[in-house]
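User: Please run a holo structure prediction.
Assistant: Happy to. Please share the sequence and the ligand.
User: Here you go; the ligand is NAP.
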Amino acid sequence: MTKPTDHLSSNSPDTNTAIAKIAFIGAGNMARSLIGGLLKQGYPASHIACSDPMEASLTSIAAMGAVSTSTSNTDTIAAADVVILAVKPQVMREVLTPLMPMLTSKKPLLISIAAGISCDSLQNWAGEGVPIVRCMPNTPALLQVGATGLYATDAVSAAQHKTADVILSAVGTVVWVKQENELDAVTAVSGSGPAYFFLLMEAMQAAGEKLGLTAEAAAQLTQQTALGAARMAIESDVDVAELRKRVTSPNGTTQAAVESFIANNIEDTVEQALQAAFTRSQSLAKELG
Ligand SMILES: NC(=O)c1ccc[n+]([C@@H]2O[C@H](COP(=O)([O-])OP(=O)(O)OC[C@H]3O[C@@H](n4cnc5c(N)ncnc54)[C@H](OP(=O)(O)O)[C@@H]3O)[C@@H](O)[C@H]2O)c1
């Protein structure tokens, strides 16, 4: 059986026996979640390091296992094969610029999970020739049930590609895209997607209450229905259109509701919403770059 650590080799495709040393810059929510996921998969804590200016954030990371921590970004990345940038987009330039000499000399794999920062900007701030993987995770990654889109620059080797895949798989499903601009579509579908489902759930809960249920009952039924529908979509061997047909009996209650949604242009509404998110993602990238 393949172990999660089997693919986490060092940068050279020829050295598959070594386990990559991973350095996290930023000890916030996403770093905690990724480190938690990696440790759960059996990744050795001795191969994980993390830096953050706040001692308190580092203490909570250290409490997760024997992960080494430091307030110095330079010390933390010194021996790293992989550097994960888990800081807010607004501080990315000030984080990377002082690290440029070390990054360009050692060329570790740089993985950015920051929304909206392009590979061009990352390359400018990190230095020429540094291999970069840019990711767009979503909030459920904090519970290790996220969906992440990833894009790799040409300098990323096959082994580094696998390494990034395994690291982000520690917090959920991963999907690779071939063009960087597809990450704007990933943002529109899964990056912002949890909020669309929360909005639908809010509306279902409110409608359930209007139909006479208590708030608690409406919430419980809505939440479990969302979970059940998602699990059916993931685990079934047919697509969601077929699943919908199978639960829609002719002249039944589901048909009445689905016809009402369609009459109210649900498809156009969703398309316009995702287009708005896509356009906003493109303009945010310009602002942040
Ligand atoms: N949370 C999500 O659901 C989610 C989803 C998709 C993408 N992302 C992306 O993931 C990244 C991290 O998000 P997050 O939610 O984990 O943010 P966060 O909780 O704010 O974590 C960022 C951490 O970086 C630290 N930091 C700030 N300046 C630093 C520096 N110069 N060197 C080292 N560390 C520094 C911050 O410390 P201080 O608190 O002291 O500033 C904070 O502990 C963001 O770029 C975000 O766009 C997050």
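Residues 57 and 63 are 10 Å apart (CA to CA).
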